[in-house]
Write a structure and sequence with these properties.
Blueprint: E1 4-13, E2 16-21, E3 24-29, H1 32-35, E4 44-53, E5 58-63, H2 66-76, H3 83-92, H4 95-103, H5 107-110, H6 118-128, H7 150-161, H8 166-174, H9 183-195
Parallel strand pairs: 3-5
Antiparallel strand pairs: 1-2, 1-4, 2-3, 4-5
Helix pairs in contact: 2-3, 7-8, 7-9
Length: 196
């Protein structure tokens, strides 16, 4: 498996890149989220990669961040979601936005992504609930880190770490006014709400 490529960006024509690594040109497909951060043609870059082997082709996909690659891999595990659709999802919504949609069961935002219908959006939410890694930005514990919602997100991550499913943790936090509260206090109130 090819884990990453480091080389000179020889060409970029969305969604395809050509990367010169020691005199060998690798054709790589990348989501638009990766394209936005690419250097100019001729400059050096590093991309994390995922190789998809099919009967008729071997396709290398490239990602700027580990979070993008992890989401891509998780999407491929869902029945009916192929590499092209997974790439389309990453091109149409950020990793953080996708995690937020799954966490909040927001099908309306997911259907705005080209190629995603209502049934597919519902299936994505159901199947991705337990697959989202706590370390993914936008997942529990990291969205808005440093911002006003940081304490609530940290509390969400803590509840998931305690064994609550993301949907359960979201429900536990819904009725709590988190403004100005420390993470520990939010967690305490969420857990008290489950005891009643």
């Amino acid at each position: 498996m090819i884990g990453f490529l480091r080389g000179r960006l020889a060409a970029k024509h969305p969604p395809q890149l050509l990367i010169d690594v020691g005199g060998v040109g690798y054709e790589v497909e990348a989501p638009m989220s990766t394209f936005y951060g690419l250097p100019a043609v001729g400059e050096t870059l590093t991309l994390l990669t995922h190789l998809v082997v099919r009967e008729d082709a071997q396709i290398l996909f490239g990602f700027a961040t580990d979070e993008e690659r992890q989401l891509f891999r998780n999407l491929l595990r869902i029945s009916g979601i192929g590499a092209k659709m997974a790439l389309g999802i990453l091109s149409g919504i950020t990793v953080e936005g996708f995690a937020r949609c799954v966490r909040n069961e927001d099908t309306a935002s997911l259907v705005k992504v080209p190629g995603i219908g209502k049934k597919t959006a519902e299936r994505l939410i159901i199947e991705m609930r337990d697959r989202l890694d706590v370390s993914i930005p936008g997942s529990p514990g990291t969205v808005g880190a440093g911002g006003p919602a940081g304490a609530e997100d940290e509390a969400f991550g803590a509840l998931v770490a305690l064994g609550y499913r993301p949907v359960e943790a979201t429900r536990m936090l819904k009725g709590i006014k988190c403004d100005g509260l420390a993470t520990e206090e939010i967690i305490r109130r969420a857990l008290q709400g489950t005891v009643k």
